[in-house]
Amino acid sequence: MAENKNPPGTLDRDDNPGEYVLKTVRSSVVVATFIALWLAGVNRYEMILPFLTGTALGCSLIWSWERMAVAFFTPERARKKKTGGKWIIILFALVKYPMVAYLIYWATRHWNQTQLLWFVGGFILVQAVIVLRALGRSLMENSK
């Protein structure tokens, strides 16, 4: 059995720094697909688009922040680039957050309350997957 190189309490046990977020996004997409199929099965087609939009928003936000962190704040890359990751993150936020705000504004104008709740549920799904993955990893470590 391979020995664990990371200190206890670390969420990401993989050698690749972005592997945890990639697996989280992949798990979120799988769960969202099953929920969308369930919604189709119970003839709630009007709830599928808001739910998948919320999931896509949650996945894209977590993935984009992970990409920024890997690109500018890992020790290997920080030594190579002295461009000031702070300004890149500020620029990134100035572009991304107005787009998110417009999406939410559009959703509140065009979707009813039930559809908005499914949109929020899709967004929260990503955070729920993160919590459940961390809880599962914690329980697995405690059982050893």
Descriptive key words:
flat; single chain; mainly alpha; 144 residues
Overview of this structure, please?
This protein is an all-alpha fold and 144 residues long. The protein has one domain (19-143). It has helices at 19-41, 48-73, 75-80, 85-110, 113-143. Helix 2 (48-73) crosses helix 5 (113-143). The longest helix is centred in the last third of the chain and has 31 residues, at 113-143. The protein is flat and about 50 Å long. The relative contact order is 0.14.
Q: Work out the helix count.
A: 5
Strand content: under 5%
Care to count the β-strands? 0
The largest pleated sheet is described as:
none
What is the global morphology?
flat
A few lines on this structure:
The protein is built from five helices and no strands. The protein has 144 residues and is mostly helical.
What is the topological layout?
Elements: H1 19-41, H2 48-73, H3 75-80, H4 85-110, H5 113-143
Helix pairs in contact: 1-2, 1-5, 2-4, 2-5
